[in-house]
Amino acid sequence: MSESASGTINYLSHDKSIKSWLFTLDHKRIGIMYLIAVSLAFLAGGILALLVRIELMAPGETIMSADAYNQTFTLHAVLMVFAFIIPAVPAVMGNFVLPLQIGAKDVAFPRLNLLSFYLYVAGAVIALAALLVGRIDGGWTFYTPYSTSIGDGILYVSTGVFVMGFSSILTGLNFIVTVHKMRAPGLTWNRLPLFLWSIYATAIVQVLATPVIGITMVLLFLEKFMHIGIFDPALGGDPVLFQHFFWFYSHPAVYIMILPAFGIVSDLMGTFSRHQVSGYKFVALSSVAIAFLGFLVWGHHMFVSGQSATSSVVFSLITYLIGIPTGVKVINWVSTMYKGSVQLKTPMLYAIAFLFTFSIGGFTGIMLGVLAIDIHLHDTYFVVAHFHYVMMGGNVIAALGGLHYWWPKMTGKMFNETLGKIAAGLVFFGFNLTFFPQFIMGAQGMPRRYYDYLPEFQGYHLLSTYGSWVLGAGMFLILGYLVASLINGKKAGLNPWGALTLDWTHTTTPPHPHNFLETPIVTRGAYDFHLAKDLFASGKEVSEVVTSTKH
Amino acid sequence: MANAHSDHPAHLQHHFVSSEQQFDAAKMGMWLFLVTEILLFSGMFVAYIVYRTWHPEVFVKSSELLDPVMGGINTIVLLASSFTVALGIHFAQKDNKKGLVINLVLTFLFALTFLVVKYFEYTAKFEHGVFPGAAFDPHGVSHGVDYATYNIQYARQFFSIYFVMTGIHGFHVLVGMGLFTWITIKAVKGQFSSAYYTPVENCGLYWHLVDIIWIFLFPLLYLI
Fold first, then answer.
1. Closest C-alpha to A386, from A439, A428, A430, A431
2. Residue A512: helix, strand or coil by DSSP?
3. Contact, A524 vs A276, CB < 8 A?
């Protein structure tokens, strides 16, 4: 034990064999494996997105046939939704950070955690195998009866989504139990880092919503495989029932995507403003409120699908309600910055970018929840722009902030801060250039998923495509300097950002295989900077203070 | 690491502080898993309710073609198995290895009986051309009812729902038999005691859920 106390052992260096990675039960290594896997999915999905944008530079055929275009955007969506964005933050950062932030040696069920990773990989491979056996087009929503009328590829995609869903359930279940049962002494719910409140709310949604997409995929599989007549109108089934089932999962799934992003932004706001997050309890409970309300709004995807007018009105009203807890968060983040002393490091740049992009995504969501307006905007580029502002402007930008924030903890290396800031600027600018024109052409009537379009929309499409190149350049720059930091990055200190959560104050960088040599005892909240004067006294860097008090 | 944990019992995993914490965590995890199981079945129950509401007369007549005696026997078999698995947990808590093993084996046999009865039910239906999905082509007479008069697509829907629900439930029974085989072996090896019987408790919880789902399936499909 003596060598580990001196900090030479860490979870990366203690055993470097391939086998020790593939069979690891260590939540940190599983988090890193998820990081690599979802990054590959993001890369593949991103390249498909660039291809879609190039095709749309001019009306008519540009680089691919209409048929290839339909398959390209469908595969982009399936990869991004199921293989990237749903596991991205919970499975990567949740896995890596959660036990560190609650002062535990691991998640409650390490073997389930590894199983969950392999289920994810298997599910993604099965879904991709659909490419080899037949065409998959018509979008990621698989609406019947179209989806059961195309080739056998749907059998693979439905199986893949089912298996990835199982992985998501096991991750969520693991996190709920871990947060309930494994917190360090003194870490009360009111002291929990807001990232964990969000991961907890996310896990609830994962556990309660995913089984429904599971049975939906089973029934879709059986519909295609032996025509059981549940969803196929030709056999007496009801396609709207499929839409209900599908959105009963897939709307809450939107909160699986966005809630962890809220958590990251809350942590970044507190840490880089050097101030208690304003309205801590409201920010924490608003995550749970969003998770709850998120289950009651699925019908707003079906305003034009033939559900009753009464249902539509109720779903529309509940959709407005979600604006309240979301607004509570945004206002508290802004007020945290107002009261605090903001340090514009790269992760914080992403948190601030998130405030702009997510707010636009959120507001346009409320506009789409208005029944009359939705009739006009339904299935146009306005919807495409809205959900990209939430998914990418919300989740991905926050996830990039989180990745930069925890990168030193994960790897022990600092990335190049200047390049980091340039890339953050490119991503923010490129993102807005890509998607803002889509709001305008959508409002003017450009339908989504169309291969061809009227010449009057070409200007907007060109802007959007140029934006996607800037965005892509930003992403590749990030990939470049992060990989470079592994090779020649500066060694990271114990607490380079001066955070107060256990992952930074009580573990080495990178962490010990068992995280903590002794169970930490928590005496203050996650952002109680006013109670942590000892850490900041006499002008010392936090990392120096932590080093000297620890050993 | 061995000396640092020398005061820990063998069953205690390194990342837990105490046996109580490990037991509570495992039990909470199992309850959450049961919630997901209920939600999985809820999709099928919703489909059942929707189509029954739309075609009540077809569903009533089709349900008369199912054999309530066979279904009733299976209900009793599953209730009995829930009783034996509960007894098994009781004996584990009392450190009674023999009682534990006997009750686990009994539970396994009840589960097997359930599937055998189900097998005869399914084959009786198949003989009359009552298959799930596209192969649905009913003929012949059973229980004094002529299948051919029900040869309409909504009857096919009823039987599709019947086969999917009981099929997925039957799959859960099969998984349960696997679980009971596994913990019976552990019990014979003497790995359970009043200090550690978490797998018995959790398999018991799972089995009660399988039982409860059948308690809902039986009246909905066979009786009303």
1. A439
2. strand
3. no
Nearest to B133 among A180, A207, A227 (CB): A227
Considering the four listed CATH numbers 1.20.1560.10, 1.10.287.70, 3.40.980.10, 1.20.210.10, the one that applies to the domain covering A2-550 is 1.20.210.10
CA of B188 to nearest chain A CA: how many angstroms apart?
24
Lowest mean pLDDT: which of A281-285, A515-519, B112-116, B188-192?
A515-519
User: A115 CB near a chain B CB, below 8 Å?
Assistant: no
Among the partner-chain residues A106, A207, A228, the one whose CB lies closest to the CB of B15 is A106
Domain CATH code at residue B206: 1.20.120.80
Say which residue the tokens 């009994």 belong to: B106
Chains A, B: CB contacts within 8 A come to 112
**Partners of A380 in beta bridges:** A447
pLDDT score for B65: 87
Closest listed residue to residue B67, CA positions, set B128, B149, B108, B109: B128
* Whether A412 contacts chain B with CB within 8 A: no
Please, is B1 exposed, middle or buried when counting C-beta atoms within 10 Å of its C-beta (0-12, 13-18, 19+)? exposed
Residue B3 maps to a domain: no
Amino acid at A225: F
Residue ranges with strand state E in A73-231:
none
pLDDT beyond 70 at A7: no
The pLDDT value recorded for residue A523 is 87
| Model confidence at A345: pLDDT above 70 | yes
pTM given for the model: 0.93
Pick among B15, B18, B55, B126 to test the A interface (most A CBs inside 10 A): B15
Q: What is the pLDDT of residue B141?
A: 79
- Asked if B32 and B19 count as a contact pair (C-beta separation under 8 A), the reply is no
Read off the pLDDT of each residue in A270-298 and give the average, rounded to a whole number. 94
Examine residue B38 and state whether it is found in any structural domain, yes or no.
yes
Q: Six-digit token pair at A535?
A: 């850490």
CA distances from A148 to A145, A349, A459 (A): 5, 45, 37
The residue-averaged pLDDT of A276-285 equals: 95
> What are the structural domain ranges in chain A?
2-550
Closest CA to A401 of A370, A424, A382, A385: A424
- State pLDDT tens for residues A220-237: 999 999 999 899 988 888
Residue B11 falls inside a structural domain:
no
Q: Tell me the CA distances in angstroms from B102 to A476, B78, B91, B122, B189, one per residue in order.
A: 63, 17, 10, 30, 14
Q: Measured between CB atoms, does A379 come within 8 Å of chain B?
A: no
Cis peptide before A233 (omega within 30 of 0): no
B102 in a structural domain: yes
Three-state secondary structure call for residue B1? coil
Which residues lie below 8 Å from residue B201, measured CB to CB, with a gap of 6+? B23, B26, B27, B30, B89, B92
In the predicted structure, residue B147 carries a pLDDT above the cut 60: yes
Read off the amino acid at residue A259.
Answer: L
Cross-chain Cβ contact A177/B36 below 8 Å = no
Is the N-terminal amide bond of A510 cis, ω within 30° of 0?
yes
Contact B43 A238 (CB under 8 A): no
Q: Report the DSSP beta bridge partners of residue A515.
A: A512
CB A41 within 8 A of CB A35: no
Nearest C-alpha neighbor of A347 from the set A266, A278, A256: A266
Q: What is the spatial distance between Cα A316 and Cα A106, in angstroms, rounded to a whole number?
A: 42
Residue A2 has pLDDT above 50, yes or no: no
How many Å apart are CA A434 and CA B107, to the nearest integer? Answer: 61
Q: Can you say how many angstroms the Cα of residue B212 is from the centroid of all Cα atoms in its chain?
A: 8
How many structural domains are present in chain B? 1
Nearest CA to CA, how far is B154 from chain A (Å)? 7
Domain of residue B67, residue span? 18-223
| ipTM value | 0.92
Task: List the single residue in B26, B39, B133 with the smallest CB-CB distance to A226.
Answer: B133
Does A169 contact chain B (CB < 8 Å)?
yes
Token pair belonging to B17: 């502080």
